[in-house]
Amino acid sequence: MLIITSYNNINFGSIQNPIRPFKVTTKPETLTVSEIDYSKDLTPKFIKKITKFFLDNFSVETNDEFWLRYRKGTLEEKLKHIKLFEKYYSSIFNNEKNKPNLTLLLATDKKGNIQGACLTYGNHEIPGTFDSTLYVDSMATNKKYRGQKLAQSMLEASLSANKNTYTDVYLTSANAANPFYEKMGFVKLNPNSLKEKRVLDYIERTRRDYPEHITPYYKPLQLEKPRWYETYVE
Prior knowledge:
single chain; alpha+beta; Aminopeptidase; 8-stranded mixed β-sheet; 21% strand; disordered N terminus
């Protein structure tokens, strides 16, 4: 069972922008949302656990063949996906550049089971934007907790904690989730803006699922600062 550590722990998750534990009341039960203690909880076993949680709850309404093979494919295909993403998350968690501002929020029930998770850190996805832009890498909730502001609460907590460090936040949304992000104030990159289109062109070159299955979004955190896409370096 994953043990959620206290706010005052010296090994608290996101070193520069920690988030205090908080509660979210849902119909099944009240959940505790807290960061993990990376020095104790970030084990290979935990990485397997959080990887499977994200994969089981990602893009459940998409027709993207990549995700369909995970959910409906052979056991061999499923295990291949899990292994691929375990390697991916291990690289994210163990990247020294990420550690000061990497945040993994978990929403857990009374038994310690993960019911929601939100992973953010400096943006590696778009060259030149690591220092200016917070990246929402992964966010998911279990089906029975959806529509009860759990995802919204986790994301708002992460954005609030990082608003003085980053000028903007960036993410790529599965198209089925677009209404959720737009309701939270995220906007699509504008293809009619030269600077924004340069970023869209880069995404199209580097993402196999754009534009058919995903939509890039951003949200300003510091309105008075230049926008993040102005720092993009080709």
